[in-house]
Specification:
disordered C terminus, 297 residues, alpha/beta, 10 helices, single chain
């Protein structure tokens, strides 16, 4: 499995076979020579305590990243229990199942089965289980952020023009999808440039699918914040959806306004991701023990 598959750039449902790719920054910000990482704010909870939305960018298969997420969530909850957790790992049609689990109405095994977790996400459940258990124990709202696999995969194959009215049940209208960020497009294209030379791969459709994914998660977060303006939202998503703010954060801000206080945190980032310093995130968070634990491609 390639690095970016573990970080957010994945088309689900088997419509694309993604080859492993190297991590690279957008052309506009890519360093031309190796430099020491710029100074970043010291790892601290203080900026996170003041934020309305906190994005914790993960590698999906990193045990260290998920341990850090739980540590941060527990600390934020201890400081202020008015908290919600948004998860890329669950799709919007399954919000009622998430709610039933948090309410204690179904068992963990029933939750995994009824949310179709293994089919729709597939990374080992035990990586995320402690976070969901903590949410249930403390009755923390959990948001199923993501678009249905079926819709994202269809857009990757067929584009936006062939979507039916029913397809928009869980995703924003086409007019609410911002495809205009050239930096983001270049970034995604750099990650998957090799596909332009193989088969029927259509990058325009692939990028549109990525944006559907991002905009759906941003809409879910923004709608919750509008209904619950005093509740901090901690978002767990692949780092490909949060770095540079391109994927989810900028789209949440577009909906809620520039007064929104947010923090983008990269968990145990690979060395090449640290080269752009504050351009890529607000903070790097290293797990206790070793700064490079579980952070190898």
């Amino acid at each position: 499995m390639g690095f970016w598959q573990r970080c957010g750039f994945v088309i689900l449902g088997g419509c694309l076979a993604i080859a492993p790719v190297a991590c690279s920054a957008p052309e506009e910000t890519q360093n031309t020579e190796i430099q020491p990482p710029p100074a970043m704010p010291e790892q601290s909870l203080e900026p996170l305590l003041a934020a309305d939305v906190v994005y914790l960018g993960e590698q999906h298969d990193s045990a260290a990243d998920h341990a850090a997420q739980l540590e941060i969530i527990q600390a934020l909850y201890s400081a202020n229990p008015n908290l919600a957790i948004g998860l890329e790992m669950f799709q919007r049609p399954f919000q009622p199942i998430v709610d039933r689990y948090i309410a204690g109405e179904i068992t963990e095994a029933e939750f995994v089965e009824q949310s179709e977790y293994e089919k729709r996400w597939g990374f080992p459940w035990e990586l995320y289980a402690p976070i969901l258990r903590f949410a249930q124990e403390n009755q923390i709202p959990v948001l199923a952020l993501n678009a249905p696999n079926e819709v994202v995969s269809f857009v990757a194959r067929e584009g936006l023009v062939n979507l039916t009215p029913e397809d928009f049940t869980y995703i924003p209208r086409v007019s609410d999808l911002d495809l205009s960020n050239t930096n983001y497009r270049n970034f995604v294209q750099g990650a998957f440039g090799a596909h332009g030379q193989h088969g029927n791969f259509n990058f325009d459709n692939f990028f549109a699918a990525q944006v559907v994914w991002d905009e759906t998660m941003a809409t879910t977060i923004a709608d919750f914040r509008l209904a619950n303006p005093d509740t901090k939202v901690v978002v767990l998503a692949g780092l490909g959806h949060v770095i540079y703010g391109y994927g989810i954060p900028d789209r949440v801000e577009r909906r809620l306004g520039k007064d929104l206080e947010s923090q983008i945190v990269l968990l145990n980032p690979l060395p090449e991701l640290t080269l752009d310093g504050p351009a890529i995130a607000d903070m790097f968070w290293w797990s206790k023990g070793s700064p490079e634990i579980e952070a190898t491609p």
